[in-house]
Amino acid sequence: MLTGFHLNIKELNIGKKTYITNSPLTTEHLESWGRFRAGSTDVARPELPSHLREILRTQASRKILAFGRGLSYGDACINTENVTVKFNYLDRAVEFNKAKGIFTCEAGITIEEIIRASLPYGWFPPVTPGTRYPTLGGCFAANVHGKNHHNAGSFARHVRWIELMTASGDIVRCSARKNSQLFLATAGGMGLTGLIYRISLKLKRVHSAYISVENIRVRNLREMMNTLEAGDAEWEYSVSWLDCAASGEEAGRGDVILGRHAEPEQIPYRQRSQPFSVKLQQPVSVPLDPPVSLIGSLSTRLFNAVYMRKRGSKSTRRQIVSYDTFLYPLDAVRNWNRLYGKQGFVQYQFVVPFDAGYSVTNRVLEICRQSEHLPSLAVLKRLGDGDGLLSFPMPGWTLAIDIPVKRGLFKMLDELDRIVIDHGGRIYLAKDARMSPQAFRAMYPEFPQWLKIKRQVDPDDLFSSDMSRRLVMSMEDVS
Questions:
Q1: What's the rounded Cα separation, in Å, for the pair 206 and 426?
Q2: Rounded to a whole number, what is the distance in angstroms from the first to the last CA of the chain?
Q3: Under 8 Å CB-to-CB from 266, ≥6 apart: which residues?
Q4: Are the C-beta atoms of residues 396 and 354 closer than 8 Å to each other?
Q5: H or E segment at 467?
Q6: d(CA 19, CA 230)
Q7: How many Å apart are CA 83 and CA 67, to the nearest integer?
Q8: Residue 471 — φ and ψ, nearest 5°?
Q9: Radius of gyration, alpha carbons of the chain
Q10: Domains of the chain (ranges plus CATH)?
């Protein structure tokens, strides 16, 4: 059992729960994780499939969108002046096969809850994003990727099947083999094909709750990319942090961070008898909204300079850390998005093919340095093959940069869009807050195929979001 947790498989209420009558709609103001996009919406909190059908029946004249934990950075999780279906109560486990590592549950269960229940038995999510708080339904809808995408692929690759409630109220079971086109349209489809009700996920076997980590200091972008590429074959996880403020011969300097699940003999001696018992980091919280953003070019430059000096000249550091320290470093600060103030921030994440990776990444960093929009955080990694018609990953280099929202930012991002498009790349829909419909169609050439499938199961475009309306995803052509 994990230290500090009291959750066990019985507490997940497998097959057992006392149900209450479906609650009425309540009006709430919801915002995305980046805080730049927000809106008022009527919220339902169903507990049964019959409640979902009732929502579809009574709200058929409006637009409907599922909502997990609201961790999309842009407006993919916002449905202003329409109906939002929160999955807080559709969060029951159905079955956990401890021998095979198969976890079947309702879509409202979070990654954190899966880990609590499965890790004591030696199982772990096969793919996890940079936070443990999203729901499994959200993970499938965004088809999230992790630090191990170069060898494990995206989340959907490890999903045995989903049950999807379509606009008709029917529940359709989809998998890579059965109703496969709907499965591929829903993976990365941002909740626009229906309501994901249940998921069956194949977990991966691990032998401890720890990660063996190698942290390598690199002098510039070229060295960073070479180090990441070399680490692909040997390491399960790989990612890098860049100092966006560095220029000249040091442009792109930073740390490459490689990791793999540790074996019991690698962890501290006193923990070897209980390799799955680990003291998790205790998060601090940002309790209030500052009147202005605390994140800016000056604070970013100061932080990066201090961070780079802290390691000194030591080029490589090896250590054993708990899984949460390695996989979820930002979870150490709850509500860290408040540091950007009420203006919020955007995360711009793109991927381009490997042969364009250096030139595009170097150009993007240069444009950011020369502007007034220095990224506060930049993460670079390699991606493998993609899954899903609107899924973000493709073989190539992906850079994610967090930038505070202020005047002139979107003009710069439009310029970055053109560079990404010219090199055959795309940006991540789960992070996007401002892309144009034309740019979206240029980046996602399989959109017409996706739209054809959506129209078959949702002919009246019942499932919609602020993002889908901004990108005019109900129409094939907007030229």
A1: 33
A2: 57
A3: 208, 210, 212, 320
A4: yes
A5: helix 466-470
A6: 53
A7: 10
A8: -90, 0
A9: 22
A10: 10-205 (3.30.465.10)
pTM of the model: 0.93
167 touches 463 (CB < 8 A): yes
69 to 88, 107, 223, 302: CA distances (angstroms): 8, 11, 37, 33
What is the Cα–Cα distance from 298 to 423, expressed in whole angstroms?
Answer: 32
Q: DSSP assignment, residue 9?
A: T
Q: What is the pLDDT of residue 161?
A: 98
Report CA torsion sign: 346, 351, 355, 356: negative
Distance CA 196, CA 165 (A): 6
Strand (E) or helix (H) holding 196: strand 195-202
pLDDT band at 2 (very low <50, low <70, confident <90, very high): very low
DSSP type of residue 463: B
CB 74 within 8 A of CB 433: yes
* Angstrom distance (rounded) from CA 308 to CA 243: 8
How many angstroms separate the CA atoms of 89 and 85, rounded? 11
Q: What is the pLDDT of residue 283?
A: 87
Binned at pLDDT 50, 70 and 90, residue 311 comes out as low
Listed in sequence order, the residues at least 6 apart from 305 whose beta carbon sits closer than 8 Å to its beta carbon are 245
Look up residue 462 and give its two tokens.
Answer: 């019942």
> What is the token pair recorded at 263?
């074996």
Bridge partners of residue 241, in order along the sequence:
255, 379
Q: What is the DSSP string of 109-168?
A: -BHHHHHHHHGGGTEE-SS--S-S-SBHHHHHHHT---TTHHHH--GGGGEEEEEEE-TT
pLDDT tens digits, one per residue of 260-281? 999 999 998 888 989 998 888 8
> Which tokens sit at 128?
């996890």
Q: Which one, of 259, 213, 255, lies nearest residue 236 by Cα?
A: 259
Residues 331, 131 contacting (CB under 8 angstroms): yes
Q: Tokens in use for 9?
A: 């498989």
Helices (H), 254-371: 297-311, 323-327, 357-370
pLDDT tens digits, residue range 39-61? 999 999 999 999 999 999 999 99
